[in-house]
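Subject: sequence -> structure tokens, single chain

Hey, anyone have a minute? Need the predicted structure for the following. Not urgent.
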Amino acid sequence: GEPRKFDPKFRGPIHNRHCTDVICCVIFIVVILGYIALGIVAWVHGDPRKVIYPTDSYGQFCGQKNTLNKNKTILFYFNILKCASPVVLINLQCPTTQLCVSKCPDRFATYIDVQASYRYRPDQWNYFRQFCKPGFNNPRKSVAQVLRDEDCPSMIIPSRPFLKRCFPDFSTKNGVLTVANQTTFKDGRGKTRNVTDLREAANGINNVLDARSVGMKIFEDYAISWYWILIGLFIAMMLSLLFLVLLRFTAGVLFWIFIFGVIGIIGYGIWHCYWEYDHLKGIPGSDLTVYDIGFQTDFKVYLQLRQTWLAFMIILCGVEVIIILMLIFLRNRIRIAIALLKEGSRAIGYIMSTLFYPIVTFILIAICISYWAVTAVFLATSGEPVYKVMANQTLCKYANLTCDPETFNTTNVTKLCPGAQCTFAFYGGESLYHKYIFIFQLANAFVFLWLVNFAIALGQCTLAGAFASYYWAYRKPADIPLWPLFSSFGRAIRYHTGSLAFGALILAIVQLIRVILEYLDHKLKGAQNSFTRFLLCCLKCCFWCLEKFLKFINRNAYIMIAIYGKNFCTSAKEAFFLLMRNVVRVAVLDKVTDFLLFLGKILVAGGVGVLAFFFFTQRIPVFAQEVPVLNYYWVPLLTVIIGSYLVAHGFFSVYAMCVDTLFLCFCEDLERNDGSTAKPYFMSASLHRILGKKKLSPKKA
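Reply:
Had a minute. Here:
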């Protein structure tokens, strides 16, 4: 690495700019326009209510406004016994008429009995009629025709709503399965059947709905608690900003408070785990192992086991020992890092607006995530209602063929297959759009990753430009240009959109490959082929390392772009070789700084997490009445903790970027200049004292 020639005209990251990586910029803009078009197409075709509400045989939602189903929110199956057939798993739809009702039946009755006694017991007829097709009121029609045309169900069974669908109300009596204390029932076709047949039918639907049920409960929890989640994230934002402002004045003191605060919190955690472990001694059932009780969705079950608290205690002790050992061995390095952060604090002191730049990145990423999520949901629920012929006779050749309910009664199907009906099957379609929905979902994910990486790159380049303009000001603060952050943002957008998009594209491709590998791994979990699993594991590990390496290279490339305004490849190459020439310094300073900032993030996320835990478990008396009733309290809790960590990460990244930029500028400064009058150093005296004690001339650098 020969020292770079001195450029007397070089005065920081402002002059002699030109547009870089123009082709990539054009492609990026075209892709964004395509992404907007995809969103519009998905919006036109999709309807998220299809996921949430059940749909009747006429393709209408239960509870859909401005229809006959307005007050009917529960789905009723005419003949639930048909749901036991394997067709359910193929079509994900029960081969029986489905109707929206306002409440489930609460008694046993058969159509034959009700029709026979309708003159003497009109109340029974009127009760049964609400489970018939809307508008049907003809008790004189023969039973055979009614059942053939499925005007009414052949029987009704005491049921209760589950996931907005009527299921038989099962209970066990003396170990025998019963429905409303009966073990048999009449099926309305002259047969007496056992209640276990109903259980098989209900399981047929349950297999399809089980996966949805947990998802729906989580969705409901978010719908109830989103307001409190946002408040939690706002508190995290305020805490992060407070830490950054304090850090500007007392970097050293605050970092030692960070470190001892984390040690203290972990120490308290160890004591609390021991107290719980000791407290559960002698309580029946507390000595069971996690293996004994298996997987439980209710997390509280695990907290009643001594083994759980012992495991927590051992983990926390391990973390505590590691942190203390690192402090002992890295204490001098930490002092150096803190001194560099103080220089960073000074830079931020002169350019205070940088503290609030992460809000711009946060808004950009929030827009990307919202757009991606909405597009994904609309794509997943795309499609018109598809109707299929449902025949009572097994030999009907038209069974399961697509049909149109408007013209169905005029076709031959009703003559050849008496009783056949055209009922709603699923949402989908045969058009080109519906065939390629999976490809669209993949494209949606890819452009989402590209945009998120671009938003992060734009933030890094903007901050790097602002901090570099601070460093390359010979007289600080007099030579710092006006509005450094705004000018830097303008330069990044105007000249370097293509370069930033290029860096983001490389990263997005690697991340998409990682997502696909995770998906394949998930799909092949059941496979016994150990070689395939091993290969996948190796690939996942390689791509994880590649992503980490690319993030490091990109970050430093963006700093070089901000300083010199060259294209992405040249900047990445120059940054890489510059860092390689200063590899020991990079390892020590960069990693120690990252470690200290990571401790700060943990403290913010931990503090807000503890507050959220006490709130959602109703441990704060003042807010006890305000706490929403949740299915799983860990849903908003985990969201708040992860969200708080990400918010803290956003704000602390300003400091990390500041230190990285100053460090790269410092290395450049050492290679370009030698401290003479002709080639003076741009670094401050304090920075020269910290890092330049043994490196006074570029020849030794």
